[in-house]
Specification:
hydrolase activity, 275 residues, eight-stranded mixed sheet, alpha/beta, Rossmann fold, AB_hydrolase_fold
Length: 275
């Protein structure tokens, strides 16, 4: 891996292969290794970039006491500039999909395309009245849980609450994928877990109707219904959007159904770069 120095920390990333750029941004409390099936598929034909977002993986803790999706998008912009990547295809999962949406809002036609797996626009995935979020914030309870039980147990409690509303194995249908995801969560400190959660919760999505970037949204069959609904809204909002649902998969759709996800992504990537 290589590193990019920031004013308030160091961002770790990995670059493989040559050709047109594909940039992958992982989900919350995971790391760049979450994209391994895609790196193995695309590195022979493209320049594949993965990064560890602040608070995650080798990047780990950075100075700010509070994170935001906007800050993560700043880091993405810095990395694209450092590597001189023009017209990349940006691939984001969950939290990473928010980062890509923020980038597209700022740069409506700068990316050649966007692939959003497990795409979510806000947390919770329902519209709350303006100004209401601070008054119903779960952050105080989350902080208490983190101090008493730690990140892994806190994350398991979050999964149980989601499953109670969906009745499905939301995160992943694959025990090995779930186990690997839990291992990644266990490597994150209590404070960084809190900061990442705060970034997710506070994010207010923008209207993306001005976005011209071709966008593919991919959800697993067992994704939370409200998240799927947000994905369909996103596709309808951008000027060129497509929605795909893959059976036998959950939120980590790129790992539950790697072959199907890669096939759909390859078709999308080839079409975008051909255009």
């Amino acid at each position: 891996m290589a590193e990019l120095s920031l004013e308030d920390g160091t961002l770790w990333y990995d670059a493989r292969g040559d050709g047109r750029p594909l940039v992958f941004i992982h989900g919350g409390w995971m790391n760049g290794q979450a994209w391994r099936p895609q790196v193995e598929r695309f590195a022979d034909d493209y320049r594949v970039i993965t990064l560890d977002v602040r608070g995650h993986g080798k990047t780990g803790a950075t100075e700010p006491n509070q994170y935001s999706i906007e800050l993560f998008a700043d880091d993405l912009e810095a990395l694209l500039s450092e590597l001189d990547l023009e017209e990349p295809i940006l691939c984001g999962l969950s939290l990473g999909s928010m980062v890509v949406q923020e980038y597209m809002d700022r740069h409506p036609d700068a990316a050649a395309g966007a692939i959003l797996g497990g795409a979510v626009r806000s947390m919770p995935p329902v519209e709350l009245p303006p100004g209401m979020k601070p008054f119903v914030s779960p952050l105080p309870a989350l902080t208490t849980s983190l101090s008493l039980t730690g990140p892994e147990t806190t994350f398991r409690s979050m999964l149980l609450s989601i499953r109670a509303t969906t009745g499905e194995r939301w995160l992943s249908v694959n025990p090995e994928v779930r186990s690997t995801a839990m291992d990644a969560v266990g490597e994150i400190s209590r404070d960084e877990f809190r900061k990442v959660f705060g970034a997710l919760y506070r994010y207010e999505p923008s209207d993306l109707s001005h976005v011209e970037t071709p966008t593919l949204v991919v959800h697993g069959e067992q994704e939370a219904p409200l998240v799927k609904q947000q994905g369909r809204q996103l596709v309808a909002e951008v000027s060129d959007g497509e929605h795909l649902e893959l059976s036998g998969s959950g939120h980590l759709v790129n790992q539950d159904r790697p072959d199907a996800f890669n096939t759909a992504s390859a078709t999308f990537v080839e079409d975008r770069y051909a255009a």
